[in-house]
Design goal:
The structure is a single chain. Helix content is about 5%, strand content about 60%. With about 850 residues, the chain is mainly beta. The chain folds into 3 domains: about 130 residues, Immunoglobulin-like; about 100 residues, TonB-dependent receptor, plug domain (Ferric Hydroxamate Uptake Protein, Chain A, domain 1, Beta Complex); about 575 residues, Beta Barrel (Maltoporin, Chain A), CATH 2.40.170. β29 and β30 form a beta hairpin. The longest helix is centred in the C-terminal third of the chain and has 12 residues. The two termini are about 45 Å apart. It is found in: Cell outer membrane. This is Outer membrane receptor protein involved in Fe transport. One of its GO terms (cellular component) is cell outer membrane.
Length: about 850
């Protein structure tokens, strides 16, 4: 459970300050003795101890972050209290003698009042498992009943729980995001939300991992925040996607092992284990994926230069065999009820072998060539995270400090062999041979601190600071074979080396409050961005014009209505900064016929985003509708221009402006208590205007996409899941995130292109068996009708082009998993209080010790 959910839950509870109080001990009925003059003795030692666990009455699962308050009978003032931990446990210590009311509250559950008494004979009391029954009235989120909801939605945030997603079992983070409502993933792994690029985090921090390097089975949930407040990073036109990795905190010793296989030589396996005892929680997991994938595609292009027409047709046949391992180990140490230290270490190791046969036909058969590309790409990624959390006596007041250090290294060895062919397809002449080698290194350091403090009865103040430092370096060397000597000679034109540094210094302030049925929040984030790049071999440096600190305000206004309805209007300003590959003025000749070059004069794009949302909750269904508008200045885009008869050069430019508006509708419905349906659709209109070399390109269109997920519980512990999505034809959108895969002749989206419609359907069937459903078998089939394909059509005065990409998408997987261990309530017993109890009895025998 993430920190944001904890803070929201705590604020909605609106508890009074929970701090230990010195009180007058009750009379003889509670074991106290009167001192001289008939006065009750003051300052009796407060050593009472109450502990237990909150569980859902129907599922018996723990209820985390519920509010426990111990109240005086006399005036209901608070004696002590806390929020339950993630495993539902609570522990109230240093309590005075007397009889009290224990009040238990949590969103979506009925409030419980329980009478408790503390006396010398009952100092240490285990209240056992206390069941909470669901309340029919919900506020702001989907009710979780029976099991963890596959999809929880609120106005500003959606949480998709991966362990309920059958169709992505055994896959990668790309497969997970393909099935998240409102998120689209293209064939190359690029991610968009509401037709724009989000900022992608892992465990709330930036990461150099791509989506195809994160196994789906290592992911706990995906958080989608479409219009973040000032508390979050300003980067990302369409908000933030946060991938939360699994971190087991269950009691005792427990874990899971799993193994799976898929068609086309695809295998995966791994497991996790968790040990929690006393103040220590240790967790570890390991996953391995090994597979073979294929891909093919075509490019059909015609260039028009000075009245001359030339054509190029290319066909690519590619194969790759990725293998990677994902390991994670971590420790939580609970210093006491208010202080926790956490540390974790991730290690990812991978190797990708790629083969591609690219055949080119010029002017419909005048000349042909075949280029064979073999390369081996390896990487190693380390992420170390350290966190500290302190909660104060007052409820909802806390301070956190976190640091994350990510280090990634990669290397690539490859070869190109280009063979001229006769019109009949036979080899002619000597092949052109080329070798290449590259090394890269990235370090990513993030340090942040956040403070939350309730103000008054309904207010909340949030403050925070954050620093992000990133260093990147790469060397790419190319060697051509001399046909006369057979020796390889360094190619200075194709080789390159570069470095860059990014620094972001940020601070924010947020204030939220309520009056009546109205709620409001206002915040301001300040970010100073510092960038520098260089090409060491050419002694060139690139430093964009130094920008003033960016100001990024956000405003929220909400109104609760009758019958579980709510309205919200919000605004935020966001930024998308060009990455190094878009800035570096180096021309990429990897595919000589499809070249690409960066632009050091690129400026960041700034987006003003407005949303108006409506939420309605019923007993078994929930609806969220949002109308949105985005205006972007200096949109990062691309322009493609022909060079000669058969070459295309793609460069990066800032578009004049971009306007996007639309409506997103999400409905979650439970039928007959066994069938969950989640449907999402996004209807939008976009327009892009770009001017380059006095040539103006305009592109605008209305489009839509839709997703539906159906989960049906069947007899004999079977579960059937069906997921379908459709993207209508749309204009090609610039994409600025590093979602994952790289493909041949990859053409960035631009103001010149239109993407054809695309659809797919996924199936998953799960069978639970053994005692307590400890084992499960999952059979999944992705892209049932094999329709997932990317098609781009580009039309410009100087060229036309049809570009088609197809990757292996119809995959049948079978996965087995087994969960072991059980809850051991004795493992959490507090220290033996025998000595303190005896001490208390001694004090009762000697009143002087009580004074």
């Amino acid at each position: 459970m993430n920190k944001w959910y904890l803070m929201v839950a705590a604020v909605l509870l609106g508890q009074a300050p929970l701090f230990a109080q010195i009180i007058t001990a009750p009379g003889a009925g509670t074991g106290g003795k009167q001192g001289a003059g008939g006065q009750r003795p003051q300052n009796l030692p407060q050593i009472g101890h109450l502990y237990g666990k909150l569980v859902d009455a129907s599922t018996k699962k723990p209820v985390p972050y519920a509010s426990i308050a111990l109240l005086k009978l006399r005036d209901s003032s608070v004696v002590n209290g806390m929020l339950t931990r993630e495993n539902g446990e609570f522990s109230l210590e240093k309590l005075p003698f007397g009889t009290f009311n224990m009040r238990i509250t949590f969103m979506g559950y009925e409030t419980i009042y329980k009478r408790v008494s503390i006396s010398p004979k009952s100092i240490d009391q285990d209240l056992g498992n206390i069941p909470l029954r669901a309340d029919a009235k919900l506020l702001g989120t989907v009710e979780v009943t029976g099991q963890k909801s596959a999809f929880t939605m609120g106005i500003d945030k959606k949480v998709f729980n991966v362990d309920r997603n059958l169709v992505s079992v055994g896959g990668t983070a790309q497969d997970v995001l393909k099935n998240v409502p409102a998120v689209n993933v293209d064939i190359d792994g690029n991610v968009t939300v509401r037709n724009a690029s989000p900022n992608i985090f892992v465990d709330g921090k930036p990461s150099t991992l791509t989506l195809d390097q994160i196994p789906a089975d290592a992911i706990e949930s995906v958080e989608l925040i479409t219009n973040p407040s000032a508390k979050y990073d300003a980067e990302g036109m369409s908000g933030i996607i946060n991938i939360v990795l699994k971190k087991n905190k269950k009691a005792g010793i427990n874990g899971m092992i799993m193994a799976g296989a898929g068609t086309g030589d695809k295998y995966n396996g791994g497991g996790n284990i968790n040990v929690r005892q006393g103040k220590v929680n240790v967790f570890a997991n390991y996953m391995i994926n090994a597979m073979r994938n294929w891909g093919d595609g075509t490019t059909d292009r015609t260039n028009f230069i000075n009245g001359d027409t030339s054509s190029l047709y290319q066909h690519s046949d590619s194969r790759n065999t990725p293998r990677f391992q994902f390991g994670r180990i971590g420790l939580d140490y609970y210093l006491d009820n208010r202080n926790t230290i956490s540390i974790s270490q991730n290690i990812v190791d991978g190797n990708f072998k790629n083969y591609e046969d690219l055949r080119s036909t010029f002017n419909k058969g005048d000349s042909l060539s075949s280029r064979i590309n073999n390369n081996n790409f390896g990487f190693r990624n380390y992420t170390t995270q350290l966190g500290f959390k302190h909660t104060f006596a007052e409820p909802n007041r806390e301070w956190t400090a976190d640091a994350s250090y990510n280090r990634s290294t990669n290397s690539r060895n490859g070869s190109f062999s280009t063979q001229p062919l006769t019109p009949a397809g036979n080899a002619t002449g000597q092949p052109i041979l080329q070798n290449n080698h590259s090394d890269g290194k990235t370090t990513f350091l993030t340090i942040q601190t956040d403070y939350t403090d309730p103000i008054g009865k309904n207010g909340k103040l949030e403050l925070g600071l954050k620093t992000t430092l990133r260093n990147y370096s790469s060397i790419y060397d190319v060697f051509d074979q001399d046909t006369a000597t057979g020796q390889y000679v360094f190619n200075d034109l194709l080789s390159n080396d570069y470095k860059y540094k990014e620094q972001i210094y940020a601070g924010y302030v947020n204030y939220a409050g309520t009056f009546g049925q109205w709620g409001y929040q206002g915040g301001l984030r300040v970010e100073q961005y510092v960038y520098s790049g260089e090409i060491p071999s050419e002694s060139k440096t690139f430093k964009p014009t130094k920008a003033r600190p960016g100001l990024f305000p956000s405003v929220y206004l909400t109104r609760k209505l009758e019958h579980d309805q709510e309205l919200q209007l919000n605004y935020s300003r966001r930024v998308t900064r060009p990455n190094f590959f878009q800035l570096i003025p180096y021309r990429d000749y990897t595919d000589p016929l499809n070249q690409r070059e960066g632009n050091p004069n690129l400026q960041p794009e700034y987006t003003n985003s407005v949303e108006f949302s409506y939420v309605k909750n019923w007993k078994n269904s929930n609806f969220l509708g949002t109308a949105y508008f985005r205006n972007t200045n200096n949109l990062l885009s691309t322009i493609s221009t022909p060079l000669g008869k058969d070459t295309l050069l793609t460069t990066f430019v800032n578009a004049d402006h971009n306007n996007s508006y639309g409506a997103e509708l999400t409905l979650k419905k439970t039928l007959f208590g066994i069938w969950d349906i989640t449907a999402n659709t996004n209807l939008y209109h976009m327009e892009i205007t770009t001017t380059q070399d006095k040539e103006t390109y305009k592109n605008s269109d209305f489009s839509w996409n839709a997703k539906i997920n159906s989960e049906l519980k069947l007899p004999a512990n079977f579960t059937l899941q069906v997921s379908g999505n459709y993207q209508a034809p749309t204009i090609a959108l610039p994409n600025n995130n590093s979602g994952g895969g790289r493909g041949f002749m990859m053409i960035p989206a631009s103001a010149q292109g239109t993407i054809k419609g695309m659809s797919s359907v996924d199936l998953g069937l799960k069978k639970d068996f053994l005692k307590n459903k400890a084992a499960s078998l999952t059979l999944s089939l992705s892209d049932v009708f094999n329709t997932r394909q990317y098609e781009l059509n580009q039309v410009a005065p100087a060229f036309t082009q049809d570009y088609i990409r197809k990757r292996e998408s119809r995959i049948l997987r079978l996965t087995f998993s087994y969960r072991f261990g059980k809850f051991d309530s004795q493992i959490f017993k507090r220290k033996n209080m025998k000595a303190e109890r005896e001490n208390m009895q001694n004090m009762q025998g000697d009143p002087s010790q009580s004074m």
